[in-house]
Amino acid sequence: MSKVLFVDACARGWEVSRTYAVAEAFMNAYRAQHPRDEIEELTLAGLGLTYFTGKELEYRDALLARGGQADDYFKLARQFAAADKIVIAAPYWDLSFPALLKVYIERVSVSGITFSPEPDGRLRGLCRGEKMLLITTSGGDFTHEDLSLYGTALSYLRGICAMFGVDGFDYLWTHGLDIVGNDPEAILRGAKKQAAAFAESW
Ligand SMILES: Cc1cc2nc3c(=O)[nH]c(=O)nc-3n(C[C@H](O)[C@H](O)[C@H](O)COP(=O)(O)O)c2cc1C
């Protein structure tokens, strides 16, 4: 049995999000294929997450300095660290993803929970994670673009996996939903099918 954390970073709301629709097709197929897995869904838009201010960082650091890793304040980080598989649904915004997801990553990036600084200056990942999957959709078509420029979400999340000790990273990227002349409904139908097929072996 695996613990799966499904992180919904679809900032426009899951009710209208095409990215969420693809992720939902993935999760439904995953559930059917892995009935014994424990799946937790986290809707970031409902959590009231805010970016760190100096004052809050002082509070956080003081809590960590007195060994407060078990405090409720760090529950998102502990949940992330305990997951065997992490699925992130996030639309493609401005070369990456909504700030909502960045704020979440900052909240789970906690020394002593998701990573640990080593005496030699390197970071050691503390997460159980076997793998992470990013499900995204974009208005444009980046199929033939240089992903070192246009795929910064991929390189960033790969780096986060390396830092936190999550072993593998995969992504499903649906392109071209906002290109005039394209048929977004048909593209989405294909994407959902592909996501459901991918779920069977993931
Ligand atoms: C704030 C914002 C920024 C976006 N930036 C890009 C972009 O840089 N490139 C692109 O191709 N599409 C961009 N889009 C379009 C979305 O990627 C596209 O509509 C996507 O399918 C939206 O997913 P959703 O329905 O899950 O919200 C952007 C949309 C928004 C709202």
Strand adjacency order, main sheet: 2-1-3-6-7
Mean pLDDT across residues: 97
Q: What is the CATH homology-level superfamily?
A: Flavodoxin domain
Q: What is the tally of beta strands? A: 7
Beta percentage is 15-25%
Number of domains: 1
What is the CATH architecture assignment? 3-Layer(aba) Sandwich
> Structural class of the secondary elements?
alpha/beta
What is the radius of gyration computed over CA atoms, rounded to a whole number of angstroms? 17 Å
Bound molecules: flavin mononucleotide
Tell me the quaternary state.
Answer: single chain
Give me the secondary-structure topology.
Layout: E1 3-8, H1 18-33, E2 38-43, H2 54-65, H3 75-82, E3 85-89, H4 99-108, E4 115-117, E5 123-125, E6 131-137, H5 147-150, H6 152-164, E7 168-174, H7 184-201
Parallel strand pairs: 1-2, 1-3, 3-6, 6-7
Antiparallel strand pairs: 4-5
Helix pairs in contact: 1-7
In words, what does this structure look like?
It is built from seven helices and seven strands. The chain is an alpha/beta fold. The protein has a single domain, classed as Flavodoxin domain (Rossmann fold), CATH 3.40.50. A hairpin with a 5-residue loop joins strand 4 (115-117) and strand 5. Helix 1 runs parallel beside helix 7. It is globular and about 60 Å long. The two termini are 13 Å apart. Bound molecules: flavin mononucleotide (FMN). The site of flavin mononucleotide (FMN) has 17 residues, from helix 1.
